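Model: Ready when you are.
Researcher: Fold this.
Model:
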Amino acid sequence: MTNTVKRSVTSPRDTTGRVKQTLEKNRDLAEKEAAKAQLVEAQVADDVRAEIVDLTEPPEEFAIEEAPVVVGESTRELRVVEDLENVTIGYGNTFSFEAGRTYKVPAFVYNHLAEKGYVWGS
């Protein structure tokens, strides 16, 4: 009977075994560092939870600086395909258009008339 003894030393040509050992060591180090990071995060979270938030006092007053707001309304040029008289577009906006004439109008008017099919060439 022959007793075969297992060798615990890997062959110098066994690069897979050496890479495996290196990866195992690196994994162990990474796990230890992750555990330490979790402990630190838990301690910070406990410290934050331990702080008392006072909601009884009114918030601090902030200085509000008032400045005029200038909104540039975009305009479009259009020509209608037929005469339109007293067309209401939006609240309180009434328009009259003659066919073949060029008008400069706000973009919302152009979009509305183009959607309805009244703009020539659209």
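Researcher: Now this one.
Model:
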Amino acid sequence: MIDNFSLGAYVRNFTTTNVGLESRVSDFNYGAILRYHSDNGIFIDSKLGTGDEGFDARVQAGAQFKF
């Protein structure tokens, strides 16, 4: 079970704003990434961080198909 999890750090020089259309604004952000990847191709990425605009939390899920 623990083999399906990974932990890392991130640093980026932009933040994403969602006002109508998604756009990027110059901003310094840093934090941690927790990733879960199942054996059948499902993955969940969680990002927790901080930056000039304050606390930032994101969760993204998806599926990978391998042929």
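Researcher: Key takeaway?
Model: The first strand starts at residue 5 and ends at 19.
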